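Hi U.,

Before I forget, here's the chain from the pilot set. I'm dumping it here mostly so it's searchable later in email.
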Amino acid sequence: MKTGCEDKRGSKVGSRELPVLGNGEASMITVRNSKAGKIRAIVLIALNAAMIAHIVQWLATGRTISPVEPSETMQTLQQGAVNAGFIFFSVAILATLVFGRFVCGWACHLVALQDLCGWMLKKLGLKPRPFRSRLLIWVPLLVALYMFVWPTVNRYLVKPPNEPVIPEFTNHLIVSDYWATFPPIAVAIPFLFVCGFMTVYFLGQKGFCTYACPYGGFFGIAEKLAPGRIRVTDACNQCGHCTAVCTSNVLVHAEVRDHGAVVDPGCMKCLDCVSVCPNDALYFGFGKPSIATGKPAARNYSLSWPEEILAAIVFALSLFAVWDVYQLVPMLMALGIATVSTFVFIKSLKLFRSPDSTFYRYQLRSGRRLKPAGWIFIGFSIVWLALNAHSGFIRYNEREGARAFESIRIPDELALAHPNPKPWLGATDRKNIAEGKRHFDLAMKYGLFTNNFALSKLAWIDYLNGDTDRALEMLSRSAAVQSGSGRAISLYYSGAIRNRTGKFDLALTDLNTALTERPDLVVVREEQGEALWNLGRREEADAAWKEALRESPQLVLANLFLAGSAASRGESVTAQSYEDQAERITPRDPFFNWMLGLRLQNVGMNALADKRFKRAIEINPGFRMNRTYEAGK
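Structure:
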């Protein structure tokens, strides 16, 4: 059956199903191919090529423009770092306030990926159908508020009295650590697959944009205020070609009929509808914004209200189960996974409740009997949802382990001052250590991947628990999978522990490597000097301590080490000078002084160590009766 619409321009046409005409039954109509779609495809391909060129330029030169990615705006709001992402996002919102959501349709790499997936599915004879939800449509705005508004509100609520709400702006337009805020490549690839392909397959052509994209949350609001939108002339005869080609799932024919313009905030100005209109009735123009025009056309939703509430619960559970699991899954990927999990769960539920069910052209259930395709869908659902549940179990244990770790109150310096830190631990610390160890061990035992960022936390817990060998093993694994500061800190702790256990050669190797990663880490130089001193390389030890003081003159321990070194050579004046400097900057704290005494004992500077022990007791006379003192003795 053909419609009464004729193609005035003689453009190439093709057959499409359009289920919006007549009584709602599908008809085969002739709809020309969109010229705008081809142009947009070229633009989006060029956009991705530019992104690749940007990365290549950074890899080749080591410095480049900061990522042109809206999420970088979080760095501006939280740290005052003005970057290319902040500028792009600001300009994009301002442009949307005037022209509508052109940026979404013509300048988003994820839209390009979704369009590619939609095109590939259609080549396979599968047309993605939109999943329509009343509640989940609010997710992008809520996430946008969390990302871009909450940090400022929270800063206002908890900031010190003299600290500004908006941090001081600094220039971060050119950076050397381009990938610092992005997930590793091993995560980026599945991220693109989930958010670019799976969301389209299960939720429709713009599934991620509709239910997960936080930037779209703000663009959708700006779109309502924009005077620029798709408008209609009297030549429109409601043929429905426009709705048939809209990849944003907008009921274009109904909206231009009711309002004279497209008012749905999901319209991304792809211009396919304008391009295929056989009567040239649609155009982009300016006039009243949609907020003053009317509501989007009424549509049928995929879920009843009880199902909507259940879907929202499933979405929230899935999101919090996978978000940051293994400290790998970024929020946007978690949102994409949660949308797929919601669809899969609801579809599976309906599959058992309905006598007949289909998915694309596949019959899942007929006459209350599951078909082979239905069994395959159920099998996929079980595996997918089981992985969500497993991630939730791992994420819970990782979070609880991290909470227990953060609750340990013993200072690192005090714990590292003695080979056996257990006597320094109070009842609360012992409880947190046991809890942290239990949860981290469970996450590592049953996890599908290793949380590399948790290795150093578990190492510290093992050390405090008296398991030095396992602590060193965890630190070694942590250093092997990290770089920069993370690697340097793991090696520093490893070197410090080896120093306390008399493995000075191994300690020196760790500490030297740490300094290649972070030459400015002065505590490493203090430990380096201690290892050299115990190996009999005393001139090198002096050089390490002096270098530490050149970088940070307020180091109490380095001054005391140099005082002890000078005293061992009979240089009493020099020794007294270093000791006086240390005395001036030593805090009046018994534990700190006791820690200094223990560290001085470790290198055989017993006279200075005794002074620090006595000083601790002078500050707190009751300290002598503390088991801390007895442990030191």
